Amino acid sequence: MLAAPPSPAKPAATGSRPDPAALLIWYDRHRRALPWRALPGETPDPYRVWLSEIMLQQTTVRAVKPYFERFLTLFPTVADLAAAPAEDVMKAWAGLGYYSRARNLHACAQAVVERFGGRFPDSEEELRSLPGVGAYTAAAIAAIAFDRRAVVVDGNVERVVARLYTVEQPLPKAKPLIRDLADGLTPEQRPGDFAQAMMDLGATICTPKSPACGLCPFREPCAARTEGTQETYPRKEKKSSGALRFGAAFVAVREDGMVLLRTRPAKGLLGGMAEPPGTEWSAGFDPAAALPLAPFAAEWRRLTRVVEHTFTHFPLRLTVYRATVPASAPPPEGCWWAPVATLDGEALPTVMRKAMMVGLEG
């Protein structure tokens, strides 16, 4: 007789269920102070909630804080953001990464103004109709901004739930199961606080390494803690990194302190961002053969220092060429000259800032 397959998740330990009320008591005492989070008794601002959720996708709280505060200074309301030139939005976002988020952020603000009179809708269905708002973000906004019961599952929540129920199925395949288990935990009362409490629990107590189980309000019903296997959850499939790609960047510096820039195509990786002219990136590209692809004829000098950068799906190695040209040199079509002194204000992504630094120091 064949044995039954292992269950993808076990019941919580000691026969008890995790109690949302216990988590909320813990949250009321230990909640994190975050610039986008309403204080106890305050009504959450949907604009702040939405802006923070978009910025926090694939990005740490520490990295997001200064960008969030800068955006509120530049664009205090969703109407201000919608009316801003796209170039200004991209400049403000430069360095935060995943630049399609910035384009969708601007498009979403315009949609909120045009379709909803400048007020964010409060239902998950209508929120999902907005550019750049997927199932998770819609649930987070509905719960946190409007206190609607919604199942909010980010990476922190996945870790908490996977340990509570010792979910054996690896991520990302386990996502539907973890969501169902989180659904069973989400209360009707204070769902917004519950969502933020789960996030805080994962960020401060149920951490990836060395979780502080003795301080956890779910320590008794946690199956992984009972087994002593908490650091092995969630299970994850091994990721395969993409092949190394190569390319070249051309840093042209005018004698009057100007540097040549252009805008990347709107669609695709780093879409709409600024960059020094460069080549395609591919595994078979030979940087030694890059000169015919330079933006104009000049005395290009290949620099010994290369730029290395890792994207989500592949690593990149850029060879940098530099040329000094007369102050009267016109920019090629589609390019412009920008003062070196004001490059911090240009919408240069991190990899291009690295290339500019190498070129200017070369």
TrEMBL record:
HhH-GPD domain residues: 55-204
Record field: catalytic activity: Hydrolyzes free adenine bases from 7,8-dihydro-8-oxoguanine:adenine mismatched double-stranded DNA, leaving an apurinic site
Entry's Gene Ontology BP terms: base-excision repair; mismatch repair
Cofactor note: Binds 1 [4Fe-4S] cluster.
Signal peptide segment: none
CDD domains listed in its UniProt record: ENDO3c, NUDIX_DNA_Glycosylase_C-MutY
Enzyme Commission number(s) from the entry: 3.2.2.31
Pfam family membership, one: NUDIX_4
Presence of keyword Metal-binding: yes
Annotated coiled-coil segments of the chain: none
Requisite cofactors: [4Fe-4S] cluster
Keywords, sorted A to Z: 4Fe-4S, DNA damage, DNA repair, Glycosidase, Hydrolase, Iron, Iron-sulfur, Metal-binding
EC class of the enzyme, as a word: hydrolase
Molecular function as annotated in GO: 4 iron, 4 sulfur cluster binding; 8-oxo-7,8-dihydroguanine DNA N-glycosylase activity; adenine/guanine mispair binding; metal ion binding; oxidized purine DNA binding; purine-specific mismatch base pair DNA N-glycosylase activity
Similarity comment: Belongs to the Nth/MutY family.
UniProt-recorded name of the protein: Adenine DNA glycosylase
Source species: Alsobacter soli
Taxonomic lineage of the native organism: Bacteria, Pseudomonadati, Pseudomonadota, Alphaproteobacteria, Hyphomicrobiales
